[in-house]
Specification:
There is one protein chain. This protein is mainly alpha-helical. It has 16 helices and four strands. Helix content is 33%, strand content 4%. Strand 1 and strand 2 form a beta hairpin. Bound molecules: heme C (2 copies). The site of one heme C has 24 residues, from helix 3 and helix 4.
């Protein structure tokens, strides 16, 4: 995408001044991000205490969880999905519909973006509230409980900023500052370094990839069709994110309770079992794979794409067989060598700053110094104008409503 015109940048600045969610100046944005960093690691919120965001989003695993399903603060409670990497999460577009022109000339509308693998949070701001109150995650009793703990935190003064006594006494305001701080933290350069070997290669350094990886890249773009969904070209962000953030049902092996994904909240029959395509950035560090952690290694994921339909016995049952995408996957006819090359290629998607952090045993990665700060990139972030895309009218639900994954008492 080309740079947004100046008018758009000005509008972004005006709107963010008017919004309580946004950080208003570069200094306020940086201060909010710094407080967000502390909240992210704070284990005092959960009930019982001891769990923070970082318990499930582990920096060493590219801020994902090496457990297939994360365990909650309450002993014995388990979520139903694999924790995603938080690298590049602040760049995921808001949940919206996009019109696509099919080869047949037919215009169709498809869902795109949104947070959580089913897109059930329309924006990142909406998303960061949920882990606090989810009974299978941090299990905070109430918004009042969260606000009380924030007021007692060592960083409370910085969180409060310029809020008056009256505003600081209001739980909603205090919690809003916390959510905003987390959003600003997740926008920090360390979560978007774009310093993997694939970036060097795409920027014109042919030696950045090995011969096997170059062969893998060719297959990724052609025979295996991976790049149709895991895009190598920039979209709304000026660098490639290796995802189109569209929704598909790959037929992941069943694991845990039946999970309707996108269809669970849109109620559309064809959308049952569909999940958002993830970025493949840092995918070598985020095993196990798929929304339910049902596949252990990258080689097996590629074998699954290659022969899902030819070896159904190997993969077992899937939750929604009737909506599986058989057009783009399941019978690719890849040779063993081609599979090896694809797996090799995915290693080139790992950010150097994460590898360096792991080597140095450092707590967090450090992005290359040339990475632009959040203020400079403000018009590119999905939250730049805080506009939540309107939802079109949804059809009547053909399936009985599914129990909510997240707690019903998640008041903002
Ligand atoms: C008990 C483990 C656990 C804790 C604690 C936790 N998360 Fe998560 N997180 C998950 C899981 C599992 C998912 C994927 C759920 C899904 O897709 O439905 C997730 C998803 C996310 C996503 C969405 C990423 C995407 O690709 O859509 C964000 C952002 C996120 N978490 C941020 C946080 C923040 C911020 C905190 C702390 C306030 C936190 N998480 C605490 C397990 C956890
Ligand atoms: C039609 C779109 C589409 C195509 C084509 C596609 N993918 Fe995916 N990919 C997805 C979706 C959707 C998911 C998430 C599915 C789920 O969690 O159930 C996914 C998940 C993955 C994952 C797991 C990532 C994680 O963090 O769990 C890997 C690895 C992957 N794809 C690699 C590939 C490779 C390699 C190819 C080419 C052989 C490919 N994909 C082709 C849409 C696609």
């Amino acid at each position: 995408m080309t740079k947004p015109p100046v008018a758009v940048l000005l509008l972004a600045a005006t709107l963010s001044q008017a919004s309580t969610k946004a950080a208003e100046t570069p200094e306020q944005q940086a201060a909010a991000a710094a407080v967000g960093r502390e909240i992210f690691q704070d284990t005092r919120f959960s009930n019982p205490v001891g769990q923070s965001c970082m318990s499930c989003h582990v920096p060493q695993s590219a801020f994902a969880d090496s457990k297939a399903l994360s365990t909650g603060a309450v002993h014995g409670r388990e979520g139903r999905r694999n924790a995603t990497s938080l690298m590049y999460a602040a760049l995921i577009p808001n949940f919206s519909q996009e019109d696509i022109l099919e080869e047949t000339g037919e215009q169709i509308w498809v869902w795109q973006g949104g947070l959580f693998q089913d897109g059930s949070s329309r924006t990142l701001y909406e998303q960061v509230k949920r882990p606090f109150f989810d009974h299978a995650e941090m299990n905070v009793c109430s918004p009042a409980d969260l606000a009380a703990k924030l007021r007692a935190a060592p960083y409370a003064r910085r969180l409060r900023g310029d809020l008056s006594d009256e505003d600081w006494a209001n739980d909603g305001n205090v919690n809003q500052r916390c959510y905003r701080a987390l959003v600003e933290f997740l926008k920090e350069p360390m979560f978007r370094p774009f310093d993997a070997r694939i970036d060097d290669y795409l920027a014109g350094s042919p030696d950045a990839l090995s011969e096997a990886e170059k062969r893998g890249l060719e297959i990724f773009k052609t025979k295996a069709k991976c790049a149709d969904c895991h895009l190598l070209i920039p979209g709304a962000w000026p660098k490639p994110l290796l995802s189109d953030y569209g929704y598909d049902n790959l037929g992941a092996p069943s694991h845990g309770p039946k999970d309707p994904g996108l269809g669970g909240h849109t109620g559309v029959a064809e959308e049952m079992g569909r999940f958002r395509a993830p970025t493949l950035r840092n995918v070598s560090l985020t095993a196990p794979y798929l929304h339910n952690g049902s596949i252990a290694t990258l080689r097996e994921v590629v074998e699954f794409y290659n022969k899902r339909d030819e070896e159904p016995g190997r993969w077992g049952k899937t939750d929604f067989p009737e909506t599986v995408n058989h057009e783009d996957s399941g019978k690719l006819g890849l040779t063993d060598q081609e599979i090896d090359d694809l797996v090799a290629l995915m290693d080139a998607f790992t950010d150097r700053s994460l590898l360096e952090m792991r080597k140095a045993n450092a707590p967090f990665p450090v992005a290359p110094s040339a990475t632009p700060d959040s203020w400079k990139m403000r018009a590119y972030f999905p939250d730049w104008n805080h506009a939540v895309p309107p939802l079109p009218p949804l059809p009547a639900r053909p399936y009985p409503p599914t129990p909510p994954y997240h707690s019903p008492n998640e008041t903002p």
